[in-house]
Amino acid sequence: MGGEVVRVLVVDDHPALRLGVRVMLEDQPDLRVVGEADCVDQALRLLADSPAEDAPDVVLLDLNLGAGPLQGVELITRLAGQPGAPVVLVFSAYGAAQEVFAALDAGAMGFLGKDVGAEALVSAVRAAARGESVLGPVAVDRLLRRMRGGIPALSRREAEVLRLLVDGLSNRQISARLFISEATAKSHLTNIYAKLGVESRGAAVALALREGLLRVG
């Protein structure tokens, strides 16, 4: 995002939590909360009606919006693939493996538990706005517990790129770490997505951890 302000839409059905999140985020000069919603329908209306200068870059989303832990996945699914749609960062007390998988497979950029501190939340919002995958300790723990075999035919370089993707590195950071161009890094990611049958960084991370793909095939 460079020096620009990151605009955030907070979606949670607890008013006190929304207020707390707003205070934490707006304490930072580069973050601004442009709206709050307590359900999927309200969030979609706000997104549709927002003027360009208030269009959010990041949706900070609780999965449980009063109708079950996967209610928020509906919003992720609705936004996935829409041109210009904001990225979704899940911020939820729910962290069972099935919720983590569902959110990331639907296209969420990351998953944080509500037990993270203000500094971690702020850093995660900034990272998500830059297009980087974000996984909090709870999500990592759930995903690692579900790692299995199932190794796709990844090349050694693709496996290295996938591991760095899981570590949360951006395309630029991956290219610097492996001493390759950013275009080459993007090409490797395209091949990885095709082999894994996924369409997003979050889904690739979820599948890699779930199926134990961090070995060379």
Order of helices and strands: EHEHEHEHEHEHHHHH
The helix count comes to 10
* N-to-C span: 36 Å
Shape: globular
> Which regions contain 5 or more consecutive residues with pLDDT less than 50?
147-151
**What strand order characterises the main sheet?**
2-1-3-4-5-6
Mean pLDDT: 83
Main sheet?
Answer: 6 strands, parallel
Proportion of residues in helical segments: 40-55%
Structural class designation: alpha/beta
Radius of gyration from the alpha-carbon trace, in angstroms: 17 Å
| β-sheet strand percentage | 5-15%
Beta strands, count: 6
Secondary-structure map:
Elements: E1 6-11, H1 15-26, E2 31-37, H2 40-49, E3 58-61, H3 71-79, E4 87-92, H4 97-106, E5 110-113, H5 118-129, E6 134-135, H6 137-145, H7 156-166, H8 171-178, H9 182-196, H10 201-211
Parallel strand pairs: 1-2, 1-3, 3-4, 4-5, 5-6
